[in-house]
Design goal:
Helices cover about 25% and strands about 30% of the residues. The chain is of the alpha/beta class. The radius of gyration is 29 Å and the shape is elongated.
Length: about 400
């Protein structure tokens, strides 16, 4: 049976990301979850109260992200966070709707340390108390205290240092870091949204708090997203500067699975202006064609593309340890390689009509010949290490001895 879902704060950073994900599930584009979604009720600051009340009557699950965190007046904290929550819960009660309610709070609601006098934290804590009281109606409640958030569509120069740094560096603007050693606990938007889907599937992660630290507990009062990252401001800026320089160095930073670097790079790219969305690569050209480096990695070699004009032979060299893959993607050619120890020769006819990867073996001198009289031969090449001019490990020797 499909569920109707109400998302308050649907135009905000988290709300937009969640709604777009819910839409992909509803429309059958995302089949990674066993959730059937009916209507998605989106509520923002402009939604009339009578419309919100109708949503509260029909919904089967509430995600409450609406709130105020940058008001003009301090009093607006309570109005936007506590009072709106009270109104939302009142509408649900009016219609006898005891569907689950997820409430987005903040770690500032702990009122611990630097958050002790936070008016925002106090208003979020007041909202939490209303939600826990609402549980007495029989509704399941899920209260999350989120740390600092980052990801695509997060508003820069607002309340996210990561968003501000990404936006400014991507757009060539200055940034200010007063203390690079300040450490932030960061939660990536896709990890947050993933946990929201867990909540819909009735498998939210529960916890209790020891100060600011979430302690996993099956029967915990609160809920939490298990995956966060603790990173200093200085390290964030260091990563972003390397991303900024990638079009010049062609070096792709390490972005291992589920790493902070991988998530930060995705976030950074989402802020690139049009003029930086593409960049020209240096083509090394001569009468034979061209050779262009595409991308380099720290530990996994580099990618290049080679274009050979009709009738041209390239290569004619060997390596002690370096190895490569040649993948012809257009044209028709012949790859030859000879074992320089035994003189064994191996030949492979290759064509863009049949994509295959050919190993260039250590100790084998090799070449690639364009067999066409009119068409360029285009080959994508991968080498297991970046080219080092001080240690090229490349030695000229023709495959076919003269």
């Amino acid at each position: 049976m499909s569920m109707n879902i109400l998302v308050t704060g649907s135009r905000g950073f988290v709300g937009k990301n969640l709604c777009k994900t819910l839409e992909t599930i509803r429309d059958g584009k995302n089949r990674t979850r066993k959730i059937e979604i009916g209507e998605i009720f989106e509520c923002d600051i402009d939604t009339p109260k009578e419309v919100l009340e109708e949503f509260c009557k029909k919904t089967d699950f509430v995600f409450s992200f609406a709130g105020v965190n940058r008001p003009k007046e301090q009093s607006e904290f309570m109005e936007g966070n506590r009072d709106f929550t009270a109104e939302l819960l009142s509408m649900l009660k009016k219609h006898g709707n005891i569907c689950p309610v997820m409430y987005a709070s903040s770690i500032q609601a702990s009122l611990i340390g630097r958050y002790a006098e936070s008016e925002y934290g106090k208003s979020k804590l007041a909202g939490e108390e209303l939600v826990f009281e609402h549980a007495k109606t029989g509704a399941k409640v899920l209260v999350y205290r989120f740390p600092n958030l980052f990801g695509k569509w997060c508003k820069p120069n607002y309340n996210s240092a990561v968003a501000t740094f990404c936006h400014n560096i991507a757009n060539g603007l200055d940034i200010t870091v007063n203390d690079p050693n300040v450490e932030l606990e960061l939660l990536y938007i896709d990890d947050l949204v993933g946990e929201m889907l867990n909540a819909l599937e009735d498998c939210a992660h529960r916890c209790d708090y020891n100060g600011l630290e979430a302690i996993s507990s099956v029967n915990g009062r609160y809920c939490y997203v298990p995956k966060t990252h603790k990173v200093t401001l200085g390290k964030i800026v260091e990563h972003l500067r390397s991303f900024e320089n990638q079009p010049k160095t062609l070096e792709m930073p390490e972005i291992s699975e589920d790493s902070f670097e991988k998530k930060l790079y995705s976030t950074y790219l989402s802020y690139l202006p049009k003029e930086k969305t593409s960049f020209v690569l240096k083509m090394n050209e001569d009468e034979r064609g061209s050779f262009t480096e595409l991308m380099k990695t720290k530990n996994c070699g580099q990618f290049s593309v080679n274009i050979s004009k009709p009738g041209i032979t390239k290569g004619e060299h060997w390596h002690h340890s370096k190895w490569e893959f040649f993948v012809v993607v257009s044209g028709r050619g012949l790859i030859q390689m000879r074992n320089i120890d035994t003189d064994e020769i191996r030949e492979f006819e290759v064509s863009g009509d049949r994509i295959e990867a050919i190993h260039m073996l250590p100790g084998y001198t090799h070449n690639i010949i364009n067999l066409s009289e009119s068409e360029n031969l285009v080959t994508v090449m991968w080498a297991n290490e970046k080219f080092d001019a001080q240690k090229p490990d490349t030695y000229f020797e023709k495959v076919i001895k003269e």
